[in-house]
């Protein structure tokens, strides 16, 4: 199905997943306006959100199944498989987050169904980021996502830590947005357009590869994205914000939010700045500092939530390696790793939420001692997550890291690959103690883990996540094929935009 | 007299720009937040004047209505509701704050001095008179409205979602009883 996005009905078809989700968000908002306050209303909003996310995923699937693509250069919104696969990652992440939140909100007394409305709006923002073909759409999507997350981070108003998290995230997020916006302005000044494909064309036709204005713009854009994916040295906010936020929200931030920022970054550097070599060195440098610093600081953490926060920083470093290898080599590895990482980290945060009480900031790694004897299934699930994060063979995390290594070697960035392996070895120093504590240390008392449990939704979501990790670890072909097709289409879009643009000011 | 009419635009530009810079400096150096906000209003009015010099009259009107009018009134309301009227402690605490500020100022100056010598590539520079021709064709409002509801329809609609989400977030954080 070829869609001409300059024609309104076809533009609406191209935007179908976003439109479906936006309509559901408005319905949800109306329902919440009348039904709020009791646990039953909260569950109703949760169920509606599940339906909303599922229908939006269905819409994205329908477009993918029709093999929708744009006629010529698409304006504003991309129509390619990369966007649909990215949409599934965001929607899947949001779906698991809702399942894990159902009981958590009731337990913590956060009886405000607006939680789900904000979650849906944030997901729409992510979809626009991953699918934006124009820097303006990407920026607006980023803001839509971020504004919802500022509120979600500070959602528990009784907790001073949550207030700190919300405020810190808001201030640093606004700071990062300013960098991004300034970068976009400079890129517009250098190329005269904000459309990603057209920027790519202009860079070549106007020979802007070494133009200071463009390079400055690219550097500022990368700093802005660096904040959003929590790459070192722009990671300072991440541990404190994850620490203070409600745990399902922290899991959502560490996975779907990061995935959205990475998807946008990948599209921007791939389509717009492919001919500008400078971004590659900057991203490689960010990858090195992020892998080294993230892993070393994580070693020193005793709190499980902070350890997971620094672990997510370290994984941003691995993903940056995939970005640095470029669209041609790295995109299949990138998509695969994103799926594996999101599943694992969401499940790990959900298990932390099951163990902890009152914000979970006080759960130490040693508190898990003897969990395997009393809660064998939860201990097994957490072990699979830790091993997958470590990159142990037989889990999806291993396959993901393997493909990133292959991509890095094939583009001659062997030193990045070597550093990835070395830092992964270091990461065993903080992932394995969790497994050892659960299986090899005796519990403090027979009642130590009596309260640790997941509800029905949580169990289903956990089973899906763990089964997915093990399945893709043993039989990755299906997911890999999907990643590869999404990669080729995106590459085709970038290469196909060869027609010289005619610059028309405001038509 | 001929000299004056020939350079009238430049003179008007410098008048507005000079007042804008002075009032912006006053805005960031006042200790009283209300005084700061009022100086900001002055700056925004000067910017509106600069827009007129750039042939963007409609934008100038919007600048006064939206920024100097609505947003600044909101600012003042918030300041007064939070009871921040009296001067607080001095912001530049010690050498570090001043040092960071100085470094940032030098960086900005360097950047401006580099950008000053850059010409935009001829291929993307608008020929002189383009805006005037556009405005003669579409009218002052049409020049802004046409791209907004045509080429930039998608970002425009996303903005409506953004505002709605911001309202929901603010209400959740401010009004909810837990």
N-to-C span of chain A = 28 Å
Which assembly state applies to the chains in this document?
heterodimer
The topology string of helices and strands of chain B comes to HHHHHHH
Elements of chain A, N to C (H/E)? EHHHEHHHHHHHHHHHHHHHHH
Give the overall shape of chain A, derived from the CA principal axes. globular
Q: How would you characterize the largest beta sheet of chain B?
A: none
* Estimated radius of gyration of chain A: 22 Å
Shape of chain B: globular
CATH superfamily of the largest domain in chain B: NADH-ubiquinone/plastoquinone oxidoreductase chain 6, subunit NuoJ
Residue-averaged pLDDT of chain B: 84
CATH class of the largest domain in chain B: Mainly Alpha
Mean pLDDT of chain A: 88
Report on this structure.
The complex is a heterodimer of chains A (507) and B (178). Chain A contains 20 helices and two strands. In chain A, strands 1-2 form a two-stranded parallel ribbon. The longest helix of chain A is centred in the middle third of the chain and has 32 residues, at 160-191. By secondary structure, chain A is mainly α. Chain A has one domain. The radius of gyration of chain A is 22 Å and the shape is globular. Residues 492-507 of chain A have low confidence and may be disordered. In chain A, α13 packs antiparallel against α14 (326-355). The relative contact order of chain A is 0.10. Chain B is mostly helical. Chain B has two domains: 1-87, Up-down Bundle (Four Helix Bundle (Hemerythrin (Met), subunit A)), CATH 1.20.120; 128-178, no CATH class. Chain B is built from seven helices and no strands. In chain B, α2 (8-29) runs antiparallel to α3 (33-53) and α3 runs antiparallel to α4. The longest helix of chain B has 25 residues, at 57-81. Chain B is globular. The mean pLDDT of chain B is 84. The chains are: A mainly alpha (507), B mainly alpha (178). The interface between A and B is large, with 54 and 35 residues.
């Amino acid at each position: 199905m070829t869609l001409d996005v300059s024609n309104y009905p076809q533009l609406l078809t191209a935007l179908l997943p976003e439109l479906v989700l936006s309509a559901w968000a408005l319905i949800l908002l109306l329902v919440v306006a009348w039904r709020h306050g009791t646990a039953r209303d909260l569950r109703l909003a949760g169920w509606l959100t599940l339906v909303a996310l599922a229908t939006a995923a269905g819409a994205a699937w329908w477009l993918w199944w029709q093999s929708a693509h744009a006629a010529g250069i698409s304006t504003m919104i991309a129509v390619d498989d990369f966007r649909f696969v990215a949409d599934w990652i965001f929607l899947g992440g949001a779906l698991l987050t809702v399942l894990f939140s159902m009981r958590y909100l009731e337990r913590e007394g956060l009886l405000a169904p607006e939680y789900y409305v904000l979650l849906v709006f944030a997901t729409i923002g992510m979809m626009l980021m991953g699918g934006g073909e124009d820097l303006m759409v990407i920026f607006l999507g980023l803001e839509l996502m971020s504004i919802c997350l500022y509120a979600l981070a500070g959602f528990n108003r009784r907790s001073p830590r949550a207030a700190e998290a919300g405020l810190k995230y808001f201030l640093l997020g606004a700071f990062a947005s300013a960098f991004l916006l300034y970068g976009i302005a400079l890129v517009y000044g250098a190329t005269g357009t904000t459309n990603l494909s057209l920027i790519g064309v202009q860079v070549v036709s106007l020979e802007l590869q070494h133009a200071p204005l463009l390079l400055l713009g690219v550097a500022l854009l990368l700093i802005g994205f660096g904040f959003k994916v929590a790459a070192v040295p722009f990671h300072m906010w991440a541990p404190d914000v994850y620490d203070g936020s409600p745990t399902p929200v922290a899991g959502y931030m560490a996975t779907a939010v990061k995935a959205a920022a990475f998807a946008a970054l990948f599209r921007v550097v791939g389509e717009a700045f492919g001919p500008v070599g400078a971004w590659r060195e900057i991203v490689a440098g960010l990858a090195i500092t992020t892998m080294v610093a993230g892993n070393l600081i994580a070693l020193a953490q005793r709190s499980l939530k902070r350890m997971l926060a620094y672990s997510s920083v370290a994984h941003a470093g691995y993903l940056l390696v995939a970005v640095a290898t470029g669209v041609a080599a790295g995109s299949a590895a990138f998509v695969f790793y994103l799926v594996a990482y999101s599943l694992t980290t969401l499940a790990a945060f959900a298990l932390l939420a099951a163990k902890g009480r009152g914000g979970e900031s006080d759960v130490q790694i040693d508190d898990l001692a003897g969990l395997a004897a009393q809660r064998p299934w939860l201990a097994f699930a957490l072990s699979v997550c830790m091993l997958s994060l470590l990159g142990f063979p037989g889990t999806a995390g291993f396959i993901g890291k393997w493909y990133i290594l292959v991509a890095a070697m094939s583009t001659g960035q062997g030193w990045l690959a070597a550093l990835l392996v070395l830092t992964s070895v270091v990461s065993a120093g903080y992932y394995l103690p969790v497994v050892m504590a659960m299986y090899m240390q005796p519990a403090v008392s027979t009642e130590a883990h009596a309260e640790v449990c997941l509800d029905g939704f949580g169990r289903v979501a956990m089973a899906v996540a763990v089964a997915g990790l093990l399945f893709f670890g043993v039989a990755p072909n299906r997911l890999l094929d999907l990643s590869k097709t999404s990669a080729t289409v995106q590459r085709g879009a970038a290469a196909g935009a060869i027609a010289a643009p005619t610059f028309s000011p405001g038509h | 007299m001929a000299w004056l009419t020939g350079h009238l635009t430049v003179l008007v530009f410098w008048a507005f720009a000079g007042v804008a810079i002075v009032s912006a400096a006053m805005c960031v150096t006042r200790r009283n937040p209300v005084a700061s906000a009022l100086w900001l209003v002055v700056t925004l009015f000067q910017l509106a004047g600069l827009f007129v010099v750039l042939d963007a009259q409609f934008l100038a009107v919007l600048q006064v209505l939206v920024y100097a009018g609505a947003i600044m009134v909101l600012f003042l309301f918030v300041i007064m509701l939070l009871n921040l009227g009296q001067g607080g402690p001095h912001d530049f605490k010690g050498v570090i704050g001043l040092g960071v500020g100085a470094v940032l100022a030098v960086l900005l100056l360097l950047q401006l001095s580099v950008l000053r010598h850059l010409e935009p590539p001829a291929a993307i520079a608008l020929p002189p008179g383009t805006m005037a021709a556009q405005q003669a064709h579409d009218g002052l409002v049409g020049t802004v409205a046409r791209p907004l509801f045509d080429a930039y329809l998608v970002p425009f609609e996303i903005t409506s979602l953004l505002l709605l989400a911001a309202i929901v977030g603010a209400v959740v954080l401010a009004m909810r009883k837990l």
